[in-house]
Amino acid sequence: MTSDSELKEFPFVEPARLRRAAVICHRNADADAYLSAFAASSLIRSLAPGCEVEVVTPGGMTTLTAKLSVKFPHRTVEGEVDGDYDLYVAVDVGDEELLNEWKDKLARGGGFKVLVDHHPLRDGGLYDRVLVDEAATSAAEVVFSLFEAKGVVPDALTSQALLEAILFDSSHLTIAGGSGLRAVVRLIDSGADLASARRDLRSEPDYGEVLAKLKGAQRVKIYKAGKWVVASTLVGSFQAHVARSLVYLGADFAVVAGEADGETRVSLRSTQRFLDSVGIKLGTQIAEEMARRLGGHGGGHATAASFTTGVGEDETMAATLARASEFLGELKKVD
Ligand SMILES: [Mn+2]
């Protein structure tokens, strides 16, 4: 966890010298990334009123985020833009590859570079300062702790944005910790509304997602390893949603792979019970390791992670299940 005195130094550049700042989300920005960026922009502008801030959403945003961006509007850029910034703040990014072309822009940029995140930090070499709290369930909690350290009370709309980001990333507080819950109470005090947050986060079912989940379930392969139930399936899209659904259906550990755009994408999910008992951290011990072995990128949290590979889905799946059996012992197929 980043210390309070470090948080107090934000934005690390003399506010009077801040003319232009970019707050950058991970590609296909989800609600936590975009709303954290929205709130970080508000904080930067209240500390440096002369500063123009752009929110960067490399490769766009999810359908839900696009809906939320109507209620929480901000000027956004998707691709690369000309010129340098005095300050770059990357939020919720995890793997720096998820910055798309903005990874190079940051590397070349002359401004001060900060990472605000809750994903485990792997390589902070791109940044001048890293503000990471792995215990936080959302990047929004880390952004909120910046408000607190700076003694800035977020306005009602910004409070609402932070609340919705926290709810989104904590499965509606199911997995929130103390810092998340404390933040929620303070955000309600500064004008956020819980009922409208829940309403805003409800989304219309997406037909493609529903189809992927049902097809994924139809093609599922079930394995038993000791008392653990492992489920695997192949689908061409929505791998993360399908993996989460298999865990909802009762699997302790789910592996979902599919080929798209010349790579194989894999999502991993496990239950907290599985993590506590077996101790496999999916992000560092499986996703990163498989990406290294099979030529891709990967990472994530202990119970939710993803990676890509340069080999086909069947080979990727076989290798991933073999990796799991290094921890679990033999996976016995259940017919
Ligand atoms: Mn997040």
Describe this structure in words.
The chain is of the alpha/beta class and 335 residues long. It has two domains: 4-201, Alpha-Beta Complex (inorganic pyrophosphatase (n-terminal core)), CATH 3.90.1640; 208-334, Diaminopimelate Epimerase, Chain A, domain 1 (Roll). Helix content is 42%, strand content 20%. It has 13 helices and 13 strands. It has helices at 4-8, 31-47, 63-71, 102-108, 139-150, 156-169, 178-189, 194-201, 207-218, 239-248, 272-278, 282-294, 313-328, and strands at 20-24, 52-56, 76-77, 87-91, 112-117, 129-132, 221-225, 228-234, 253-260, 263-270, 298-300, 304-309, 332-334. The protein is globular, with a radius of gyration of 20 Å. The model has no long low-confidence stretch (mean pLDDT 95). It binds manganese (II) ion (MN). Manganese (II) ion is lined by residues 32, 92, 118, 138-139, 169.
What's the topology here?
Elements: H1 4-8, E1 20-24, H2 31-47, E2 52-56, H3 63-71, E3 76-77, E4 87-91, H4 102-108, E5 112-117, E6 129-132, H5 139-150, H6 156-169, H7 178-189, H8 194-201, H9 207-218, E7 221-225, E8 228-234, H10 239-248, E9 253-260, E10 263-270, H11 272-278, H12 282-294, E11 298-300, E12 304-309, H13 313-328, E13 332-334
Parallel strand pairs: 1-2, 1-4, 2-3, 4-5, 5-6, 8-9
Antiparallel strand pairs: 7-8, 7-13, 9-10, 10-12, 11-12
Helix pairs in contact: 2-5, 2-6, 5-6, 6-7, 6-8, 9-10
The structure holds manganese (II) ion (MN).
The site of manganese (II) ion has 6 residues, from loops.
